Amino acid sequence: MSDTTGSTSSKTPPPGCPAHGSAVQLGGLEYQQTPSQLYRTMRRDHGAVAPVLLDGDIPAWLVLGYPEVSYVTSHDELFARDSRRWNQWPNIPADWPLMPFVGHQPSVLFTEGPEHQRRAGVITQALEGVDQFELARECQSIAESLIASFGGSGQTELMSTYAHALPARAVLWMCGMPQGSADTEQLVDDLRISLDAGEGDDPVAAYMRVGERIMQLVKEKRDRPGPDVTSRMLQDPAGLSDEEIVQDLISVIAAAQQPTANWICNTLRLLLTDERFAVNVSGGRVSVGDALNEVLWLDTPTQNFIGRWAVRDTQLGGRLIREGDCLVLGLAAANTDPQIWPESHVGAENSSHLSFSNGEHRCPYPAPLLADVMARTAVETLLERLPDLVLGVDPSELTWRPSIWMRGLNSLPVQFTPAVH
């Protein structure tokens, strides 16, 4: 692991930066369908830290190595989270597609130091108040109502009818939204659109509606608190403002919804296409747990995360990283780093993957446990209610979404014996 050294800082990378002359475009068909091969090629050609080009040929670094990602995420004093440090802002157009991910917002995601500890502490305390058994019961109830809506038809597309809806409803229940109401259903739909827009959707308008409804929820809970995450955040002695709570609640909801939806769907894909699980999945819960963990290693829902920004000139993986450079955390590449998996055998037995990141900005405890409750309950309930569930198309016909950030299927069509209620 390279040590870090400070040197004279320069605000922008040199125009003829040799590393970025051979930079890899982050995107394209190969990335969509077989990113693991691309990571292998990049690792071979560039080592643990590769020069890449984001949308519009904006230069950045993709951190591919497990030790290097661990180092970046555990050294906030060198690689910080406030994107206003970026040396590329003069080159970024206002309508840049990645602006929602990197444009500075007053949320916990972009805070640093004592302010981050204060904001993250409030979220942690609020999430620790969630009873995991109660959450599992609620998830089972949500799962059963979703299954009832398509169970009589003998076929469905699980991404839209099940995997996306369940974590959205579950996290809104945790936050104190009334279940089954029209405005909760509208919020579930707006969350999907703002995080994962389809053809004809308006993600910006949907995101605005999400913000307005969460602000309304915060006002309701200030007047009438309940046993929920929003009320606990409001009552925390840290005394966050309503605006701060709205921003942080949106971060919590977004982090719970889409990654968990992809975790559920990627696990179901593995269970339905891999013969190791086919034999005993209907009988044994153990294999569901194995599949959930294996997906976090091999098809992690958040495959890349943008990002960190260098506080000063420093060395990483043999590269000179300039002050203000952007680093993309290659979580999927790090999870399959051959340095930690000799002979390319990735064992699902342990859970030291980086799927929930690492360091101070990792997913706040106990969020990964709550996500596991949601995903496990979703998968187990579906397999118990529809025991003869099979894939509705040939496995080769399944396609991945064209995202370099999230690892998720476009659709997961299935067939089963219609359930009689």
Automatic annotation (TrEMBL):
GO molecular function: heme binding; iron ion binding; monooxygenase activity; oxidoreductase activity, acting on paired donors, with incorporation or reduction of molecular oxygen
Biased segments, Low complexity type: 1-11
Record-linked InterPro entries: Cyt_P450_B, Cyt_P450_sf
Annotated region described as Disordered, given as residue ranges: 1-21
Family: Belongs to the cytochrome P450 family.
Stated name of the protein: Cytochrome
Organism, as annotated: Streptomyces dioscori
Lineage: Bacteria, Bacillati, Actinomycetota, Actinomycetes, Kitasatosporales
